[in-house]
Amino acid sequence: MADAQQIQLLPALRKERPEIVRVEKNLNSFGFFTPSHKRLEGITEKRVKIFVRDQGGQRAEAHATILPSAKLGLPTTADQDKYYAFQKIVEDMRQREGSVLNPIGFTSARLLKILGRKKSGQGYKEISEWMERMTLTGIRSEGTVYLAGAKKYARDTFTVFSRTITVGEQMTDGRQADQNYVWLTEWQLENLNASYVLPIDFDVYRSLRLNISKALVPLIQIWFYAARRSINVCIEKKYSELCEILSIRQYQHLSKIKEILSPSLNELKTAKVLEMWDIEKTVDGSDYKVILIPGEKFLSENRARLGLRESGPMPDVRLDKFLLAMMERGIREDRARRMLLDLPEEQEMVDQLEYGDAEIARREKTRDPILNPPGFYVYLVESNFPVPGSFESSRKRELRKLAAERSELERSFEAERQLRFESLKEEYQEWRDAEVNTFLKGRYSEDEIRLMVRSAKVTMAKRRPELRLPEPAATEFAWRQLRDEVAEQLKVLRFEEYREKRQLTFSL
Known about the structure:
Blueprint: H1 9-13, E1 20-24, E2 46-53, E3 59-67, H2 77-97, E4 104-106, H3 108-115, H4 121-136, E5 138-147, E6 152-158, E7 161-165, E8 180-184, H5 186-193, E9 197-201, H6 202-207, H7 211-226, E10 235-238, H8 239-246, H9 254-270, E11 274-281, E12 288-294, H10 301-308, H11 317-327, H12 333-341, H13 349-363, H14 373-382, H15 394-404, H16 409-443, H17 446-463, H18 473-490, H19 495-501
Antiparallel strand pairs: 1-9, 2-3, 3-5, 4-8, 5-6, 7-8, 10-12, 11-12
């Protein structure tokens, strides 16, 4: 087996380097652009509810109201296309100048070229209308627009562009404009220069044809990135909330819901933004939930960073070490590389692999051996399986060793701090599970709970049929999925909130 120095991870990944466009994040979080192929006129306002984290880390309800131009109507998917192409021009300016400055000049021909469209009179007219619509559309923020400089959510009314001049119009100094010019509002400039942006795989985005697909791409980026520390391999969104943010009609029957959403979700699956999707009733039966599993084209932070790097070898020792660890355990190199693209920075993958080693060895001579060890390792890493606190990994042994070396006070303090953090995570998991168990036992009979666990197992088997998890692992995972879902519905304290409540100040 080759050693870690012989495995050049990043150059291999760079063969499929995506074209990245980094767009200002706020407009993509509350549905500023409405998925539609026609101009939306006659609508006085569009109001959206979302949940944000306030300065105390608490989950708070916020509202955004989009105030359309009476003449031009609400911004649509076509406007989003142009805005993303414009953000490509903005990104080029930031790379060249070091920051974004007003005004931003560009030709209509350049914008159309970025969009992959031919030059035409109609195209030029659409760009002119888009510039005017972006200037006249208002955003009334009730805690939804985040100001990166002030590090707070604003309560104010904004626009995106403060001023625009199209080619041929008269400039302030009397000259005739030789190209289009856009003046961004202060909050847009502030956020772009503070890198409060969202990476979008522009190649994938341009390949999409359906409006709902295009509207979902940035939302999926935000949702998956927000859930990157979750032990789940999927995210779930209430159907009613999705309809509100997309401004689409909400239906009552599953068949009609799937008729509307299936074409777009299948297009995202074909584009590999999603690996799988499903729509199911919520536990309390009051709503439906849309279940999304990320595909290989989901633009993780790792993939986004790779897309911006120059070609040529740029070794990453941490990722090379992980790649070697997976290949030594029989995981195919191509599969291992793909998994590493979306590996969160804080995920302790080696702990998970070592736990897999121990479980495989423990079960080897039992009636329930693990028949597919590489698949078991893949499951542990992809699901970000929480290693039991009682398991002593090599990393924990090293931390304990450092904590015992009193002569190295600084390293010892860091090791002890991390051990306390690990202990608090284990304590939190036990507390949260107890809260959920108390709720379930108080509301449902034992037979009903067993039915819900069995349903979770069936759902898991349907989503990930290749896993074929042995018992009791399948039941344990089904319980975990059920507890996570119930905890979310009950709004049980998240780990950060729990830690703050305990008034602990240490952090990784």
